[in-house]
Amino acid sequence: MNLEKKQINRFFLLATAPFVGLFIVLLFSMKPLHLEVDPALYAPEGTLKEQTDILKEHLDKADQSVKVTIASIRKTAALYNQTTAAMSSIVTNARTQALRPEIIYNRRITAKLGVPFERVESDRIRIELYRVNPGVYQGYAMKVKLKDPAAMKMSLGRDRVGGAETTMQAVARHGAVAGINAGGFADNGGKRYPLSTTVLNGKYLTGFESSFKDLFFVGLDPSGKLVGGKFYSQSELDRLKPSFGATFVPVLLKNGQPMPIPEKWQVSPKRAPRTVIGNYKDDQLIIIVVDGYNESGSSGATLQELQSKMYGMGVVDAYNLDGGGSSSLIVNGRVVNHPSDGNLRPVPTHFLFFK
């Protein structure tokens, strides 16, 4: 038992001897520990005041810099506002100057019509009504400014091929503010069909038919420009992209020049109620509807008279629409002209105008 204890004690002495020796060596070799303190923490009172003054000086300079910057920003803002106001004035003047030629031109063509006795105006359209009375016939001129191309459309009688209705019925049914009769027609089997090539909503109603004899096509393109003439192939007409249009005879003016009126249409009939449509170079439309008592050739206007009238008015292109008892002009829910039949005639196509 004692032997075992001695062996165990010897073992622990041998095991711990190196650690004890290392501890003794470290104990005698360690240097004293010195803590260094920043003298600035214990700066004298005078030094701290100087630093405070320096800091205050920097803050004052920063404050002055901020004030200068704010003043500069205010000046810049004021200059910006002045510049913006000046630019707005320049733009306004430029627009006014740009409109001057249009205003001057409109005054020039309006002067040849006289004073309108009725006006219709909205953000989509402007309509002015004038009396036309050169002494040999009486009628009405309607000058139309399409501010929106969609303010003019063509309607089909009762919305079906072969159907017919009066211009008043078409105006009322579609909610239009004005309307005139459009192309010619042919009767067959108790129905009334549009004459030759007719386009509605950008599509050919009964297909394309090449121009023959004195027939022409007239309508509007998507930009609100009057397009028309004789077309001997569909591709010719397709290039103009008509939104709608109808056919009749003959062409009166083309590119500002009178076109030869075939002898047949000079005398058959010589005088008659008429509806003609044309355009000015600024794309305003002009429509003249002439009164007549009958279709016998003894009342109304000749085509040469209307051709000369529109030429003198500065019209660029002009086309004769269906006339006689078909001639009708509706504005603001009333019949403006005096239909030769005594009543409005049902026809298959109408040009309508919308507010």
UniProtKB/TrEMBL annotation:
The chain crosses the membrane at residues 12-30. Pfam families: NAGPA. The keyword Transmembrane helix applies. Keywords: Glycosidase, Hydrolase, Membrane, Transmembrane, Transmembrane helix. Residues 174-354 form the Phosphodiester glycosidase domain. One of its GO terms (molecular function) is hydrolase activity, acting on glycosyl bonds. The keyword tRNA-binding does not apply. PANTHER family: N-ACETYLGLUCOSAMINE-1-PHOSPHODIESTER ALPHA-N-ACETYLGLUCOSAMINIDASE. This is Phosphodiester glycosidase family protein. It comes from Paenibacillus chibensis.
